[in-house]
Design goal:
By secondary structure, this protein is of the alpha/beta class. It has 2 domains: about 120 residues, Periplasmic binding protein-like II (D-Maltodextrin-Binding Protein, domain 2, 3-Layer(aba) Sandwich); about 90 residues, 3-Layer(aba) Sandwich (D-Maltodextrin-Binding Protein, domain 2). The chain has an 8-stranded mixed β-sheet with strand order 4-1-5-10-6-9-7-8, sandwiched between helices. It has a two-stranded antiparallel ribbon with strand order 2-3. The longest helix is centred in the N-terminal third of the chain and has 31 residues.
Length: about 260
């Protein structure tokens, strides 16, 4: 009887020690994972600072939902889009939403599509649609500082580009005829018009330059590659439950035009 008691106590000690080792290893692996660094494009409505320096924006809201879904801690940096690309290329940031392209694929792992974006040329109401960027030659064209719209706009020597920091500023200049055209994404236009309480009928899209796709990318230079698969599965979960669509939904009459 005494031998049975001793054996029972010994088994308890062994199993308890094994359980402690498992818990310790799990805790150690969780602690060893530093927060994943997200790079947000600092351009409204994707990422911006409120007057109290509170970080806001569609992409930041998405990243927080994604990291919660994946149970991964995250930190955030607000950067101009060209800097976002450099941070992902160097591994200084772990993940970001970038336009899908061979250049993005060369520096990062594509984890899936996040949002579809239209790049539009906007003019005041009454202006006729155009069929080519050549019809913008000689015109004052407003563009958001730090944004990339493609070589037709970014590298065109025949267009007088006027850079702005905020979409609201650009829309005011357009309505006041200080610029003739504004190039921006449908999301920027949508949220800018709402913020300024400008009726959609006061302006009109005259040209659809491109449809571009924002994908979730994980830096190939990141030191935490094991987190990429978790984020990929988290993105899939947000999409399947319809949460991804709700995050980036444009509603009402403005959404039908833009």
């Amino acid at each position: 009887m005494l031998r049975l008691v001793i054996r029972f106590v010994y088994c308890l000690k062994v199993k308890g020690l094994a359980l402690l080792l498992v818990l310790f290893s799990v805790g150690l692996s969780a602690e060893s994972l530093a927060p994943a660094k997200f790079a947000t494009s600092i351009i409204k409505p994707w990422g911006y600072l409120e007057p109290e320096l509170v970080e806001q924006g569609l992409l930041l809201r998405f990243a927080r939902a994604l990291s919660a879904e994946a149970s991964i801690a995250m930190s955030n940096q607000m950067l101009p889009y060209p800097r976002v690309i450099k941070e992902i290329a160097s591994g200084e940031s772990d993940f970001a939403v970038m336009f899908a392209s061979p250049e993005s694929d060369a520096i990062a792992v594509d984890l899936g599509r996040v949002v579809t974006v239209k790049v539009l040329a906007l003019a005041n109401a009454g202006e006729a649609p155009i069929s080519s960027v050549k019809q913008l030659h000689g015109k004052r064209v407003g563009v958001m500082r730090g944004a990339a719209y493609g070589p037709e706009i970014d590298d065109n020597p025949n267009i007088e580009r006027v850079s702005f920091n905020h979409i609201e500023q650009a829309l005011k200049m357009l309505v006041l005829n200080r610029i003739e055209v504004l190039v921006a994404t449908n999301y920027s236009i949508y949220y800018g018009l709402q913020a300024l309480h400008i009726h959609a009928n006061q302006v009109t899209p005259v040209y659809h330059l491109a449809t571009r796709y924002g994908h979730l990318y994980w830096s190939k230079q990141s030191s935490q590659q094991q987190q990429a698969e978790r984020l990929k599965q988290a993105l899939l979960g947000l999409r399947e439950r319809g949460e991804l669509q709700r995050m980036f939904m444009l509603e009402g009459a403005l959404a039908k035009r833009y």
